[in-house]
Amino acid sequence: MTFTEIVRKENNELFEAIFNHPFVEGIGKGEVPEQALAHYIKADYEYLNAFMHVYGVAISKSTERRDMGYFSEQVGFVLNSETHPHHNFCDVIGAGYDELQGYPLPPTADHYVKHMMYHAQMGGLGEILAALLPCPWTYVEIGNHLMKKYQPTPNHTFYPWIEFYANEDFDTLSMAMCERLDELAEEASEVELRRMKDAFRKSCQLELNFWEMAYTCEEWPTGEAVSSK
Ligand SMILES: Cc1ncc(C[n+]2csc(CCO)c2C)c(N)n1
């Protein structure tokens, strides 16, 4: 088994918990509370900014042009394409995208971005990719799972969202990350492999928690945090 096959198997319970989460199930059924959609977009817009910062660190740690090319391409993808599923949620709640931008991250999203940045700063390329991979991988599987289970047609409320992640182009993106991570895992030491597994698992746990954070409109205990802008 390859490294990514092993970690996928070891974290299967978390993938299943994500598919069964009421927010994700709600996307399939076409029914998600409006506050949860708004909370998700507010957090995810800032999460995507942090994701691009991590790609920036990954570029600075790359020695091979193919890695630099891949990470810079992904920054373009986050800027220009990841906004499509966001627009679907905004349209459903009748909110303008710009109204939901610039909010401080709720605790779980804050934890998630700092976890990725920790591995980006402390680890090598393998560790960074292991921390990043659950993000595209869980979404590809959510898209495919919902497509199969609910067989949405274009008039489904969340068809654009589901189609975006179930699309083959998106699968190609996450497969490329798996392949590169498997190459790096072959050269990694035991200690590095442990750190990569830890980074991957925590990101899967934080993906699950991110859905819960949005669904429960999680906030900091005594009101909003200070925006870092
Ligand atoms: C919490 C959270 N997790 C994953 C994604 C999806 N996503 C964000 S960036 C990216 C990869 C781009 O290279 C993918 C798949 C999201 N939007 N929010």
TrEMBL record:
Its EC number is 3.5.99.2. Pathway: Cofactor biosynthesis; thiamine diphosphate biosynthesis. Keywords: Hydrolase, Thiamine biosynthesis. CDD domains: TenA_C_SaTenA-like. Residues 13-216 form the Thiaminase-2/PQQC domain. Catalyzes an amino-pyrimidine hydrolysis reaction at the C5' of the pyrimidine moiety of thiamine compounds, a reaction that is part of a thiamine salvage pathway. Thus, catalyzes the conversion of 4-amino-5-aminomethyl-2-methylpyrimidine to 4-amino-5-hydroxymethyl-2-methylpyrimidine (HMP). Belongs to the TenA family. NCBIfam families: salvage_TenA. Homotetramer. This is Aminopyrimidine aminohydrolase. It comes from Halobacillus amylolyticus.
